[in-house]
């Protein structure tokens, strides 16, 4: 321990006498560790942290699955859920839930609240105890006394975190609900924006339903049961039900998915890419510092030779270098931790607000927990090994006679000499090139997504969502009257050009599909009919979105309940089901409807990319709202002024029709588009930051290594200038060597980039992984930066006075 403490004090003393070197190393390492810590804290929150339930690894989501269906994975029918619960032996318990949007009234402005109806014992299934009060008991709360469990955020916003909230009543959809409990802050089911939970009460009639799939089923595996065993048993159960109930379940199996995987979803690939990019940044930082240590070690050969002559063996010398590296790595780790801590809020701010299921999971906070601290410790250890061991090993075998001679200078020959440092410089340039290529491709891909044609004009478009409570709007004519008055009042507002609505707006994350048949064609077997996305719209909806009419006509107010039933289809449906034919006048009927419920096609409109630029349009059918009522309305308001300035007026117009009707998700369509592209946008932003960090580190590394190398070559430069070399010749000599390394580094990076960036192909849109424009831009940027980083120390080298340099030597 005395040796360790002595070397620590000696290292600190050396840093005080030469602060420039220490500050440069700590800065480079701090940037590398800080970038990795920030990204790892994000990966930790999204991928590694367990869900906020007890023994979360045993929880699985169970779906019905039919590979031949338009939507292969569906929720579960009530009857199948009940049969599963009785027959499946691999699960301790099954639970069911269903989303429900409530209208909260009674205090303040009415608001729309996202809730979930959950089966008895659901919170016990999740092993999630409440923060206050209790959850629903094993017996389902009676309909005569509805109960509710509040989410933490809702409790804080609506009740100010009052402890006395238990036993109070709130009015949901016109009914009083008694508050039983409050869940903890970290609890979420299924997402953080779920604000409350109520009991799922199923009547005997609902329990017998097998054709309608509407329940989200969760199961907890028994101890010792594997996921594969669960899948095998559930397949047997599903097969038995398919034989017993062929009309409803033929062709339908079961999909058993770990709940954690379901939450992570498509975000996983972005997280892995970001973590790999951050590792590149750290590798560049370590390469830089290794180069600096080698240059510095070359200048300390005389000191090392004296140590050896006084009895220090190789083990002690290597230990001394490693301790010095550990001191610097620790300081760099502290700086990196501070940078990551200070950058948490900035990192969180990159993620847009939540809407429906489009939010990236669990990024409301990025705690620096034990995993993050362990990760930082590992980085510090690895960094010490990388940039401490190689210089230590090489420098621990000096030539005593050469370095103890009077006036001898540090040499750069051998393993730690110029050739090896050149390899390191080439390596960091190549790594920076690859990382910048990845960032460039993501930037261009995101730009393509934002500039791609979605089939409508998103500019100057304000959106809002209104969901009519069933207790107040039971009949179709009541809903139609509300919609008609709302459209009239909003359309009369100054600055409104046109207004329309659809039950499912583009990029809202909401959709509905229905099986259908075409008149005059053979009917498919039951439950195997083709499906089409189904939307209900108002007459001026397409005008508000500026969706082109390909043929036929739009809906009018004359398309009401007494008129002929009509539909409008999109181009994708026309191409798929009437290729080379005119679909106008053809008739379709939705499965399960009466023999006379045919609907004539009166128009064909352009395709709308409802699910984003990356997803091809699906066949779609639009129906007039006066012929098909829907409790959900998504408003699309085309304005001649800044859309957000009309938000208050739109809310007021709706409240003039119904003062108790909540209005939610008032935002521009461009904001809605940004939220739908959240994973891609965040990845692009973070990769850009990491690419910039790589460029900065590469520049610092080249500058630092050349600066220290020039210090070691003062004697050589002094002799050259004393013999008549001009400053321009010295600059060209140094720059010629630097440019050679830059060229080799970029060439190596180009080869690596062509190989590694193929990984990006799965997340790119509208751009190839070998995009020449991106490669050219990165090559020019990196070459120019490296040139400047080389030129500054080369220019400074010519300021050395030859006589002073020779006298100092």
The tally of strands reads 22
- What is the percent of helical residues? 40-55%
Distance between the termini: 38 Å
Q: What structural class do you assign from the helix and strand content? A: alpha+beta
Q: What can be said about the biggest beta sheet?
A: 6 strands, mixed, barrel
Radius of gyration, rounded? Answer: 34 Å
Strand content: 15-25%
Compact summary:
This protein is of the alpha+beta class and 809 residues long.
Report on the structure:
It is a single chain. The chain is an alpha+beta fold and 809 residues long. The chain is built from 26 helices and 22 strands. Strands 3-4-9-6-8-7 form a six-stranded mixed β-barrel. Strands 14-15-20-17-19-18 form a six-stranded mixed barrel. A hairpin with a 5-residue loop joins strand 3 (91-105) and strand 4. The relative contact order is 0.12. Mean pLDDT is 82; it is low at 353-360 and 406-416.
Tell me the layout of helices and strands:
Layout: H1 2-17, H2 19-48, E1 59-65, E2 73-74, H3 78-87, E3 91-105, E4 111-118, H4 122-126, E5 132-133, E6 147-150, H5 152-159, E7 169-172, E8 175-182, E9 196-199, H6 204-207, E10 216-221, H7 227-244, H8 246-249, E11 253-258, H9 259-264, H10 267-299, H11 301-309, H12 314-342, H13 344-349, H14 370-395, H15 400-404, H16 418-451, E12 461-467, H17 476-491, E13 496-502, E14 513-518, E15 531-537, H18 541-545, E16 549-552, E17 566-570, H19 571-577, E18 587-590, E19 599-605, E20 620-624, E21 632-639, H20 647-657, E22 664-668, H21 669-676, H22 678-712, H23 714-722, H24 727-756, H25 772-797, H26 802-808
Parallel strand pairs: 4-9, 6-8, 15-20, 17-19
Antiparallel strand pairs: 1-2, 1-10, 1-11, 3-4, 3-7, 3-10, 5-8, 6-9, 7-8, 12-21, 12-22, 13-21, 14-15, 14-18, 16-19, 17-20, 18-19
Helix pairs in contact: 1-2, 1-12, 2-10, 2-12, 2-14, 2-22, 3-7, 10-14, 10-16, 10-22, 12-14, 16-22, 16-24, 16-25, 17-20, 22-25, 23-26, 24-25
């Amino acid at each position: 321990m005395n040796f360790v403490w002595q070397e620590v004090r000696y290292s600190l003393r050396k840093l005080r006498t030469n602060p420039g070197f220490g500050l440069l190393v700590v800065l480079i390492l701090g940037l590398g560790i800080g970038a990795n810590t920030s990204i790892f804290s994000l990966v930790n929150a999204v991928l590694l942290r367990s869900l906020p339930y007890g023994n979360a690894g045993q929880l699985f989501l169970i779906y019905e699955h039919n590979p031949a269906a338009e939507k292969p994975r569906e929720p579960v029918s009530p009857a199948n859920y009940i049969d599963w619960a009785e027959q499946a032996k691999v699960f301790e318990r099954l639970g069911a839930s269903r989303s429900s949007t409530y209208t909260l009234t009674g205090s303040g402005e009415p608001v729309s609240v996202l809730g979930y109806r959950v089966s008895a014992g659901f919170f016990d299934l999740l092993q999630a105890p409440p923060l206050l009060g209790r959850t629903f008991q094993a017996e389902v709360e009676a309909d005569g006394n509805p109960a509710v469990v509040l989410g933490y955020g809702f409790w804080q916003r609506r009740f100010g975190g009052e402890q006395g909230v238990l036993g109070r009543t709130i009015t949901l959809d016109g009914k009083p609900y008694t508050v039983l409990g409050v869940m903890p802050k970290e609890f979420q089911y299924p997402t953080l924006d779920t604000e409350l939970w109520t009991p799922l009460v199923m009547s005997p009639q609902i329990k017998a339903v097998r054709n309608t799939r509407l329940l989200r089923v969760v199961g907890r595996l028994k101890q010792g049961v594997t996921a594969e065993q669960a899948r095998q048993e559930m397949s047997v159960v599903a097969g038995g039900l398919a034989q017993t109930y062929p009309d409803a379940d033929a062709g339908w199996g079961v999909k058993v998915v770990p709940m954690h995987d379901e939450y992570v979803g498509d975000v996983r690939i972005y997280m892995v890419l970001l973590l790999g990019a951050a590792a590149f940044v750290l590798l560049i930082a370590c390469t830089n510092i290794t180069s600096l240590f080698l240059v510095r070690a070359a200048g300390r050969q005389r000191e090392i030779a004296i140590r050896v002559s006084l009895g220090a063996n190789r083990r002690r010398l290597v230990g001394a270098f490693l301790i010095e590296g550990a001191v610097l790595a620790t300081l760099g780790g502290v700086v990196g931790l501070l940078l990551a801590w200070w950058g948490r809020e900035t990192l969180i701010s990159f993620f847009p607000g939540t809407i429906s299921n489009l939010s990236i999971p669990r990024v409301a906070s990025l705690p620096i927990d034990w995993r993050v601290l362990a990760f930082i410790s590992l980085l510090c250890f690895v960094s010490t090994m990388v940039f401490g061991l190689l210089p230590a090993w090489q420098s621990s075998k000096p030539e005593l006679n050469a370095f103890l001679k009077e006036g001898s200078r540090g040499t750069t020959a051998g393993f730690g000499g110029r050739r090896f440092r050149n390899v390191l410089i080439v390596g960091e340039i190549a790594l920076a090139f690859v990382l910048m290529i990845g960032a460039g491709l993501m930037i261009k891909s995101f730009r393509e997504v934002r500039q791609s044609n979605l089939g409508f004009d998103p500019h100057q478009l304000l959106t809002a969502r209104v969901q009519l409570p069933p207790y107040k709007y039971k009949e179709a004519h009541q809903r139609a009257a509300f919609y008609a008055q709302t459209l009239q009042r909003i359309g009369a507002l100054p600055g409104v050009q046109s207004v329309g609505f659809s039950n499912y707006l583009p990029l809202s994350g909401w959709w509905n599909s229905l099986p259908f048949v075409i008149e005059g064609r053979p009917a498919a077997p039951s439950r195997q009919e083709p499906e089409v996305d189904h939307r209900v719209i108002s007459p001026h909806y397409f005008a508000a979105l500026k969706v082109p009419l390909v043929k036929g006509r739009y809906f009018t107010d004359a398309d009401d309940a007494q008129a002929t039933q009509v539909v409008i289809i999109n181009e994708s449906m026309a191409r798929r089901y009437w290729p080379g034919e005119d679909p106008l006048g053809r008739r379709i009927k939705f499965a399960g409807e009466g023999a006379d419920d045919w609907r004539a096609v009166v128009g064909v409109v352009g395709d709308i990319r409802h699910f984003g630029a990356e997803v091809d349009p699906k066949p779609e059918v639009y129906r007039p709202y006066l012929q098909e009522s829907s409790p959900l309305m998504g408003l699309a308001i085309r304005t001649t002024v800044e859309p957000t300035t009309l938000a208050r007026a739109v809310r007021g117009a709706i409240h003039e029709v119904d003062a108790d009707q909540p209005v939610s998700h008032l935002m521009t369509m461009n904001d809605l588009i940004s939220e739908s592209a959240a994973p891609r946008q965040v990845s692009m932003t973070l990769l850009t930051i990491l690419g910039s960090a790589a460029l900065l580190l590469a520049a610092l590394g080249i500058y630092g290594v050349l600066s220290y190398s020039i210090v070691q070559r003062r004697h050589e430069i002094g002799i050259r200038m004393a013999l008549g070399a001009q400053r321009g010749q010295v600059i060209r000599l140094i720059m010629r060597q630097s440019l050679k390394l830059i060229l080799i580094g970029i060439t190596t990076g180009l080869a690596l980039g062509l190989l590694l960036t193929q990984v990006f192909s799965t997340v790119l849109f509208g751009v190839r992984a070998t995009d020449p424009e991106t490669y050219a831009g990165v090559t020019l940027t990196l070459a120019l930066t490296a040139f400047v980083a080389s030129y500054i120390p080369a220019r400074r080298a010519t300021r050395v006075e030859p006589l002073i340099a020779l006298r100092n030597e």
